[in-house]
Each structure stands twice: as C-alpha cells, then as structure tokens.
C-alpha cells in the first residue's frame, strides 16, 4: 500500500462522518425558517422550490407522519383527513413562537 492510498483512505474516513453530521434535521429547517407546520399535519417549504436538503427533510417527515396517521386513523375509526386535521392543530399549537405555520390561509410567523 502506498503512502498516497493510505492518505486517500484516511481522508475518506474523516469526510464520511463530517458529511452525515451536516445533514439537515426537521428542527434545523424549522429554526432556519425554511419549513413550517401545516393544518393537515404535514410540513411544507416556506418558499418553494426548496433546496434538495430541505426537500429531503420534508419528504422523510411527511412519509413517516402519513404512515403513522393512516395507522392511527384506522385504529380510531376516523378518516385520514379527520386524523390529519386533529394532528395538524396539535402540531401548530406546539410550534414555538418565531417559527412558521399555515393554518389554511398561507404561511405566517407564529
């Protein structure tokens, strides 16, 4: 093994954790004001089109929430849209001041 190949392997090992450490979270996106809570219990981009990193957070969050909402709606004997409306109201109520919400009339800073 050459010194160059060892150096390249070390660089790769160093860069991999750094790249994943900088992945945006939902909390980051909300604090940065690029994502907000919607009345349907999902999150959305404040100013679409969102960058790929923001869109990834939105998609992952919404896919997980929809899966949970479907299960809970079926278990409670309500429609998905009924369950989403209740979840959305709760999430909006819990949203801290300074973050964005859309209660049905567009994005507003809470």
Number of strands: 4
β-sheet strand percentage: 5-15%
How does the helix and strand content classify structurally? alpha+beta
Anisotropy-based shape: globular
Q: What percent of the residues sit in helical stretches (DSSP H or I)? A: 55-70%
Distance between the termini: 58 Å
Whole-number mean pLDDT: 85
Main β-sheet, spatial strand arrangement? 2-1-3-4
Order of helices and strands: HHEEHHEE
Stretches where pLDDT falls below 50 for ≥5 residues? 1-22
Largest sheet: 4 strands, mixed
* Number of helices in the DSSP assignment: 4
Radius of gyration: 19 Å
Task: Write up this protein.
This protein is α+β, with helices and mostly antiparallel strands and 110 residues long. It has helices spanning 3-21, 26-31, 52-76, 80-94, and strands spanning 35-38, 43-45, 100-102, 107-109. Strand 3 (100-102) and strand 4 (107-109) form a beta hairpin. It is globular, with a radius of gyration of 19 Å.
